[in-house]
């Protein structure tokens, strides 16, 4: 008798728990965001910042964790994929993750996600402080004289910075000697040590080194010029004619929820995201860190990522650096 | 000289303002304790401790306060790794693997209390040395770390692997090198760092990210140790003579040259971007073995050996913060987590950093090392009691903690299989007197060697002369060659004056 009473109480508690769960609106418990890149990087920092802001718009807390490793961040994406699509597990990601499928990390197209884009920083081309090149024209002329010999640093094959370098080569009709690095910081470090003649990374990553006089910026790889303090950086589009065919190719950093999540979840997240993006904290953060604010989500962001995916996947395929043929995944040619 | 005076004056100002704020002590005590616990639990690393705290603090607290917590945890965790190294012969973190070499023999001789006390003192002084360099010689060290390019890094990584192979072999040096080369081969698995091509993955996506260090470390050290412990008659705990823990001033003074030398080496290694505490301990241990008078007793319970490793890994903290603060390039994995914490708070480290922030960090480091020393000396008496617990009860608990540690790196169940596989291999290697430490160093340094060696050749168009035409590279190459040549029987015979048992 005693036992059955205990069971009944258990059942009642269980029923109460389940009942209240279905009755409560999303979100009623804490959300976890798994960032697929390591601590200290751009994606990690942006996610920690935006999640702290979105938390203020939601009745729950958001915990940010890192799930790194795999191919192009596939470990983290697979981890989140295996969680229920109830909006309680988000994935923090960036444009570089679109190559995970063609590189064999997982077997999903990027439209598996419903993305939110916080922003990105424009890419620029810089040289060591004591470099003989003072303008982008100097550099292009030197590269034309000695094709394929000037060592150029960018993060690994298929990264956004590598694709920017490739686009610059096509647009200016030159070739450099591409030297890959694991991430932007080591590439910039190599440029300072004089190991390479130029480096392509984002403005956000280079800004402190440019301001400190360690690197000399030649040009941005976007139509807009930029400035770090008093140092003006012209756009490469002004001096190199054919560049607009291949560029700009910009970072898109943010987070995503399963595309299969309910409309209610997407709407709630979207509302919190919009409010957070409109706040002063994000604006100030973006300004100090040299980021351009995005703010796209839903269809607009999906379309943006579709273009990036197609561009990245087919560029890598042409370089022979893919494990999987993009056409078998249904990725269209750009 | 003026620069020196203003730095020191600024430091005292920061220190006083930090020390006069009561909240500082709350942060310090909690974070250093948390760090020690993370360091002491096998498999949980300093990086994890700092990352978790970065997530917890985010931009919700003032940066001045969150920095106290983050740096406190960093210092605590690097120190805390020495506890299981000494007491169990299982390094708590990769940084304290060299500490186990002499720490555990000391504990077995019943000198565990003395070992813990000396370790605490060495960690304390080591941290202060690294901090001193951060305060005074920051620009000098920056010049060195800025001029280290791929060829130097490749040769340094190779030196680390060869050195640990040479040091750890009990009978034939060749066995140590074989072990190191196995580790190097294991490091080749995964996506290659230059072309992103897959190597030795057999189409299995788990292998594409390569072997993670933590499961390999746990498999190599913890699993065989636990198997040995369970095989031995472990019905009663070891006899423990706690003895005096706080070392005598005289003893510390006598050991000071070792500690100071190790501190300087540790700071230098820490200042190199991408090379951190893990390597600092080994290099300093190797140098100690060559320089110290009792070098031939290293590995059998030499206090100098213990101090060489432990002072260096803590000094590496100050070193690792130098490129982080003034170049924005982290010198070690925990420093990378710190970089994230700074950026969330709109502080962009680099040449334009506010010099006041460096002084603030220095003041925190000093406070944290005092906290660590006091807590360490007070709690050593408690920690040493674990040796009294019967091994049959204690080791299964360690196995569970080890498993959790290996799982924490995020590779899923496969990381646990990896741990067990490495564990069985390590057990067999131990039985045949192949040292296992070089294998682990190979896995840690292999990717660095692979990447930098191939990149050097890529830049020089395959011209090997790049390894001796640069002055730094030439010195390192000479060291590598000397290390190998010194082991040839014919050369060894020439050094009859300093006869040593084969290392």
UniProtKB/TrEMBL annotation, chain A:
Keywords: Receptor, Signal. The keyword Methyltransferase does not apply. It comes from the Bacteria. It comes from Tropicimonas sediminicola. It holds the Pfam family TctC. PANTHER family: BLR1237 PROTEIN, TRICARBOXYLATE-BINDING PROTEIN. The keyword Signal applies. Residues 1-23 form the signal peptide. Gene3D superfamilies: Bordetella uptake gene, domain 1 (3.40.190.150), Periplasmic binding protein-like II (3.40.190.10). InterPro entries: BUG, Bug_dom1. Belongs to the UPF0065 (bug) family. This is Tripartite-type tricarboxylate transporter, receptor component TctC.
TrEMBL record, chain B:
This is Putative tricarboxylic transport membrane protein. The keyword Zinc does not apply. The chain crosses the membrane at residues 25-55, 67-86, 122-142, 176-195, 202-223, 357-380, 392-410, 416-446. Residues 27-441 form the DUF112 domain. InterPro entries: DUF112_TM (IPR002823). The keyword Transmembrane helix applies. Keywords: Membrane, Transmembrane, Transmembrane helix.
């Amino acid at each position: 008798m005693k036992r059955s009473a205990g069971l009944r109480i258990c059942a009642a508690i269980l029923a109460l728990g389940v009942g209240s769960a279905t009755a409560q609106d999303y979100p009623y418990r804490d959300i976890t965001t798994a960032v697929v890149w390591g601590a200290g990087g751009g994606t990690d920092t942006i996610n920690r910042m935006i999640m702290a802001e979105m938390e203020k718009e939601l009745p729950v807390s958001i915990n940010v964790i890192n799930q790194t490793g795999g191919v192009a961040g596939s470990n983290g994406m697979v981890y989140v994929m295996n969680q229920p699509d109830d909006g309680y597990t988000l994935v923090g990601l960036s444009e570089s993750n679109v190559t995970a499928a063609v590189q064999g990390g997982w077997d999903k197209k990027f439209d598996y996600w419903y993305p939110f884009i916080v922003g990105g920083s424009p890419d620029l081309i810089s040289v060591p402080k004591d470099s003989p090149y003072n303008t982008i024209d100097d550099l292009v002329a030197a590269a034309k004289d000695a094709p394929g010999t000037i060592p150029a640093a960018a993060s690994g094959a298929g990264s956004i910075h590598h694709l920017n370098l490739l686009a610059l080569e096509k647009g200016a009709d030159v070739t450099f000697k591409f030297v890959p690095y694991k991430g932007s910081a080591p590439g910039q470090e190599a440029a300072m040590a004089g190991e390479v003649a130029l480096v392509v990374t984002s403005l956000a990553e280079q800004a402190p080194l440019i301001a400190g006089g360690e690197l000399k910026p030649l040009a941005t790889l976007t139509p807009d010029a930029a400035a770090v303090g008093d140092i003006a950086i012209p756009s490469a589009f002004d001096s190199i004619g054919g560049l607009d065919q291949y560029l700009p190719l910009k970072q898109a950093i943010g987070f995503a929820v399963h595309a299969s999540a309910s409309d209610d979840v997407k709407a709630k997240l979207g509302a919190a995201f919009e409010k957070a993006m409109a706040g002063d904290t994000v604006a100030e953060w973006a300004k100090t860190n040299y980021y351009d604010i995005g703010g796209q989500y839903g269809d607009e962001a999906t379309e943006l990522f579709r273009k990036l995916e197609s561009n990245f996947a087919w560029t890598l395929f042409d370089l022979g650096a893919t494990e999987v043929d993009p056409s078998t995944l249904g990725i269209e040619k750009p | 000289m003026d620069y020196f005076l203003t730095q020191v004056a600024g430091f005292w100002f920061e220190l006083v303002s930090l020390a006069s704020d009561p909240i500082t002590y709350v942060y310090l005590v909690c974070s250093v304790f948390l760090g020690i616990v993370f360091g002491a639990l096998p498999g949980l690393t300093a990086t994890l401790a700092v990352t978790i705290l970065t997530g917890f603090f985010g931009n919700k607290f003032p940066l001045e306060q969150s920095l106290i917590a983050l740096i406190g945890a960093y210092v605590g965790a690097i120190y805390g790794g020495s506890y299981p190294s000494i007491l169990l012969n299982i390094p708590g973190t990769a940084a304290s693997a060299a500490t186990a070499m002499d720490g555990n023999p000391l504990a077995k001789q019943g000198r565990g209390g003395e070992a813990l006390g000396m370790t605490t003192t060495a960690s304390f002084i080591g941290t202060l040395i690294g901090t001193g360099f951060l305060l005074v010689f920051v620009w000098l060290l920056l010049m060195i770390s800025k001029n280290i390019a791929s060829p130097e890094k490749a040769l340094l990584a190779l030196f680390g692997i060869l050195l640990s192979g040479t040091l750890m072999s009990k009978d034939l040096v060749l066995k140590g090198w074989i072990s190191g080369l196995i580790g190097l081969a294991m490091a080749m698995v995964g996506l290659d760092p230059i072309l992103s091509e897959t190597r030795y993955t057999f189409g299995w996506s788990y292998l594409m990210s390569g072997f993670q260090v933590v499961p390999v470390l746990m498999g190599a050290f913890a699993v065989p140790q636990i198997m040995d412990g369970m095989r031995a008659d472990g019905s009663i705990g070891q006899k423990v003579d706690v003895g005096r823990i706080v070392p005598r001033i005289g003893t510390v003074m006598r050991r000071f040259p070792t500690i100071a030398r190790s501190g300087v080496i540790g700071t230098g290694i820490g200042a190199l971007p991408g090379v951190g505490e893990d390597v600092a301990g080994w290099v300093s241990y190797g140098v100690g073995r060559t320089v110290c008078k009792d070098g031939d007793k290293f590995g059998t319970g030499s206090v100098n050996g213990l101090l060489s490793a432990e002072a260096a890994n803590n000094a590496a903290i100050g070193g690792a913060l130098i490129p982080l603060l003034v170049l924005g390039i982290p010198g070690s994995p925990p420093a990378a987590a710190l970089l994230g914490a700074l950026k969330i708070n709109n502080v962009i480290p680099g040449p334009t950093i506010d010099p006041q922030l460096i002084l603030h960090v220095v003041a925190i480091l000093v406070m944290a090392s005092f906290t660590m020393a006091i807590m360490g000396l007070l709690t050593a008496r408690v920690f040493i009691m674990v040796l009294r617990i019967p091994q049959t009860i204690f080791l299964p608990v360690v196995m569970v903690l080890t498993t959790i540690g290996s799982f924490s790196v995020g590779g899923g169940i496969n990381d646990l299989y990896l741990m067990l596989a490495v564990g069985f291999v390590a057990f067999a290697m131990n039985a045949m007197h192949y040292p296992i430490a070089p294998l682990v160093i190979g896995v840690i340094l292999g990717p660095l060697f692979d990447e930098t060696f191939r990149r050097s050749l890529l830049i020089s168009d395959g011209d090997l002369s790049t390894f001796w035409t640069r002055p730094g590279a030439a010195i390192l190459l000479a060291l590598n060659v000397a290390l190998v040549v010194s082991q040839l029987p014919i050369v060894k015979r020439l050094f009859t004056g300093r006869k040593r048992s084969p290392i």
